[in-house]
């Protein structure tokens, strides 16, 4: 039989198992057999296990060591708190609820806090159980520091995890793809059918839900927010270039000859290509960082040249103006990416020319940004808040039951709640079923081992390290049943060296795991049992309903003659529009978080769900138009629009907003997205020649076409 190579996941699991085993063993054995300090040994053993196995720390060895270093003071504080509150069951339960909520809610702060949270909770769990022994606190903290220090050293020196491709490098590569496409469009080369696919693939590679947690710019600080904003604008640019390439490919099938782009668009496309390459070099540190001023000047020149061409004796065709509008939208995306990048890398506090609400995070101090992230998730509609409440209640009830029933090794009850809880009731039930099977098998094996070895600690000492290596390698790969069974053997052999044990230790673990499993399952059934499946639908509904009124309001601000009627329900004043944009951004962040969790849950029940990314794109494109269209139109020295075309714009905006409101209900058969009203060149008298197309109206049309395409995609696709 040919040799089957190991997968990268298997190799990484084995390397991690070696690091954890070395760190735990080097701290445990001397504490037991040299110092005779059981408390030091216990914490030296469980610190690498909690922060290395129970906590899925993201990143390379250096990244993980940094997270462990930052987590150690928190672990020490939790250990001290648990030691103090172990005086009685009531304060221990209250502390468990508080710690469980705070640690779980920390997931809102980014991947590193989210990854460290489960392991950090274990330090409070270990310390809050009897016996109440505050005099042993210094021994516990000493063992914790030994275990944490050894884990950091092993993460750095013992088979360290390799570096992931950074988000900056991924972003730089995507910008180079965009630059090649823009440069090809300048010279009018016939579109390669694979170019659009390459552009869309580059855009998908920047989706945060598709990236390893360690490289996601998901923090609340200015740099992460700016990098995420840069990535979003770059994805939008790639999508716009892909759409243009598809149109070019369709046109080249009819006329395969080289057709240069119009002279008005060519300089701006060339500037976009150059700016993309410059941004890629900035991300790699090869060139000083600048703001978007140069590209902004090119946009202003483009607007002036386009207006002159429109007012000339032989104005450009509607098709040319539509293409120019698409290029202008691409430039707007590039300007946004450049402005955000200048903040991410250069730390600029203000960028000239862009709407302040687009770069709202540039001015506030870091503390304010973090508070906004946390307070924004203090709502029942936040999946982070829901998970924190579910975890806190489960751990609190588990601590109450374990303390009230005086369960031996009661912390295993809480450990079961912590490790087996899932975001959906169905997934929790599946995990519990497998965990019980594995624990029963592990308990039988542990009982047989103890009956055979008796009180011969040399046997347990010889078996502990190989068992840890086996458990930490096989468990993450083979699944929950294997992980629980092997971990039962590990804790049994460890405790057999700390104090005399009987074969009934396996029985105790089975009872505790069953108790914790029942509590976790009960909490999963009672508290948001559907996980993100329900919340993502509710969040997308609220997002679309909030974004829809921005469409006619934006058209009204872009075309002053197109102000809404007095009876319109859409916001009329600038303050109303600003409030709606802020609320839409807030709803967008909640919906993105719900979708990220939705992607992590089993998708078998959601095969026929709507295309949630299309709904997110609709909201993003709505916000982009609301920010950019009025600003661009204000620079047009002559944006007079005939009344007939104003009527078309109002009707098109209202019908698009109505379609979005109807689509927000996500009906089973989808929502019909009507075509735009009567095309505006025909809105005048049939005998009169078609009027020249006002540039501002072409920009509005391009925006509305994009929004309608997003709404149709919600019906045509299914959520990945």
Summarize the structure.
It contains 25 helices and no strands. It is 71% helix and 0% strand. α20 (532-547) runs antiparallel to α24 (643-663).
Question: How would you characterize the overall build of this protein?
Answer:
With 720 residues, this protein is an all-alpha fold. 71% of the residues lie in helices and 0% in strands. The chain contains 25 helices and no strands. The longest helix is centred in the N-terminal third of the chain and has 33 residues, at 222-254. The radius of gyration is 30 Å and the shape is elongated. The chain starts with 7 loop residues before the first helix and ends with a helix. Residues 1-6, 563-574 and 682-688 have low confidence and may be disordered.
Number of strands: 0
Elements, N to C (H/E): HHHHHHHHHHHHHHHHHHHHHHHHH
Beta fraction: under 5%
From the spread of the alpha carbons, the general shape counts as elongated
Broad structural category = mainly alpha
Overall mean pLDDT score? 83
CA radius of gyration is 30 Å
Counted by DSSP, the helix tally is 25
Largest sheet: none
Helix content: over 70%
Low-confidence stretches: 1-6, 563-574, 682-688
Distance between the termini: 37 Å
Keywords:
720 residues; mainly alpha; elongated; disordered N terminus
Write the layout of secondary structure elements.
Elements: H1 8-33, H2 38-54, H3 61-85, H4 89-105, H5 111-127, H6 137-157, H7 167-186, H8 193-204, H9 222-254, H10 265-283, H11 293-311, H12 318-346, H13 366-376, H14 383-404, H15 411-420, H16 425-453, H17 457-478, H18 480-498, H19 505-526, H20 532-547, H21 550-558, H22 574-600, H23 612-634, H24 643-663, H25 695-716
Helix pairs in contact: 1-2, 1-6, 1-17, 2-5, 2-6, 3-4, 3-5, 3-6, 4-5, 4-14, 5-15, 7-8, 7-9, 7-10, 8-9, 9-12, 10-11, 10-12, 11-12, 12-25, 14-15, 14-19, 15-19, 16-18, 16-19, 17-18, 20-22, 20-23, 20-24, 21-23, 21-24, 22-23, 23-25, 24-25
């Amino acid at each position: 039989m040919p040799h089957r190579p190991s997968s990268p996941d298997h190799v990484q699991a084995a390397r991690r198992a070696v690091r954890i085993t070395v760190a735990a063993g080097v701290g445990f054995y001397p504490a037991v057999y040299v110092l005779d300090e059981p408390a030091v040994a216990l914490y030296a053993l469980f610190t690498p296990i909690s922060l290395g196995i129970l906590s899925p720390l993201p990143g390379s060895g250096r990244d993980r060591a940094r997270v462990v270093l930052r987590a150690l003071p928190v672990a020490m504080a939790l250990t001290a708190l648990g030691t103090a509150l172990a005086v009685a069951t009531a304060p221990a339960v209250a502390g468990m609820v508080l710690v469980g909520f705070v640690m779980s809610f920390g997931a809102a702060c980014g991947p590193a806090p989210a990854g460290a949270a489960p392991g950090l909770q274990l330090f409070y769990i270990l310390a809050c159980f009897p016996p109440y022994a505050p005099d042993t606190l210094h021994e516990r903290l000493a063992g914790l520091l030994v275990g944490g220090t050894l884990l950091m050293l092993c993460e750095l020196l013992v088979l360290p995890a390799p570096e992931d491709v950074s988000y900056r490098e991924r972003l730089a590569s995507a910008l180079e793809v965009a630059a090649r496409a823009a440069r090809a469009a300048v010279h009018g080369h016939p579109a390669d059918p694979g170019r659009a696919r390459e552009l869309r693939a580059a855009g998908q590679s920047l989706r945060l839900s598709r990236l390893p947690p360690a490289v996601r710019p998901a923090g609340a600080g200015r740099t992460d927010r700016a990098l995420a904003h840069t990535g979003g604008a770059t994805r939008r640019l790639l999508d716009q270039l892909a759409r243009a390439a598809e149109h070019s490919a369709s046109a080249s099938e009819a006329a395969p000859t080289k057709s240069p782009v119009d002279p008005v668009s060519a300089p701006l496309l060339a500037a976009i290509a150059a700016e993309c390459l410059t941004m890629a070099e900035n991300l790699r540190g090869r060139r000083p960082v600048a703001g978007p001023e140069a590209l902004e000047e090119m946009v202003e020149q483009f607007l002036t040249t386009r207006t002159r061409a429109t007012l000339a004796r032989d104005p450009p065709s509607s098709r040319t103006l539509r293409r120019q509008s698409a290029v202008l939208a691409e430039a707007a995306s590039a300007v946004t990416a450049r402005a955000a990048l200048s903040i991410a890398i250069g730390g600029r506090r203000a960028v000239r020319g862009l709407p302040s609400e687009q770069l709202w995070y540039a001015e506030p101090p870091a503390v304010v940004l973090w508070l906004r992230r946390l307070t924004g998730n203090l709502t029942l509609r936040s999946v982070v808040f829901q998970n924190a409440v579910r975890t806190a209640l489960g751990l609190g009830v588990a601590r109450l039951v374990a303390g009230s029933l005086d369960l031996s090794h009661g912390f295993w009850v809480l450990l079961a709640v912590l490790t087996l809880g899932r975001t959906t009731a169905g997934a929790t039930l599946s995990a519990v079923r497998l965990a019980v099977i594995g624990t029963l098998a592990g308990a039988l094996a542990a009982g047989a081992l103890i009956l055979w070895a008796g009180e011969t600690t040399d046997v347990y000492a010889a078996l502990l390290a190989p068992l840890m290596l086996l458990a930490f390698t096989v468990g993450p790969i083979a699944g929950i049943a294997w992980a629980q069974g092997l971990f039962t053997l590990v804790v049994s052999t460890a405790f057999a060296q700390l104090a005399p044990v009987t074969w009934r230790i396996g029985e105790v673990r089975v009872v505790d795991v069953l108790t914790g499993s029942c509590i976790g399952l009960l909490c999963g059934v009672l508290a948001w049992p559907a996980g993100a499946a329900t919340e993502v639908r509710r969040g997308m509904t609220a997002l679309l309903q909030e974004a829809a009124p921005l469409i006619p309001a934006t058209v009204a601000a872009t075309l002053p003659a197109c102000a809404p009627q007095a009876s319109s329900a859409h916001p009329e004043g600038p303050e109303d529009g600003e409030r709606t944009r802020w609320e839409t951004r807030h709803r967008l962040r909640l919906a993105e978080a719900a979708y990220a969790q939705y992607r992590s849950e089993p998708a078998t029940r959601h095969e026929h769900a709507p295309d949630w990314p299309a709904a997110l794109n609709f909201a993003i494109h709505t916000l982009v138009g609301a920010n950019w269209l009025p600003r661009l139109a204000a620079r047009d020295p002559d944006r007079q629009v005939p009344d007939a075309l104003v009527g078309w714009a109002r009707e098109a905006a209202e019908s698009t907003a109505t379609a979005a409101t109807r689509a927000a209900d996500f009906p089973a058969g989808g929502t019909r997205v009507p075509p735009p009203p009567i095309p505006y060149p025909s809105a005048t008298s049939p005998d009169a020649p078609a009027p020249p197309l006002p540039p501002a109206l072409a920009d509005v049309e391009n925006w509305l076409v994009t929004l309608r395409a997003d709404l149709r995609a919600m019906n045509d696709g299914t959520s990945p």
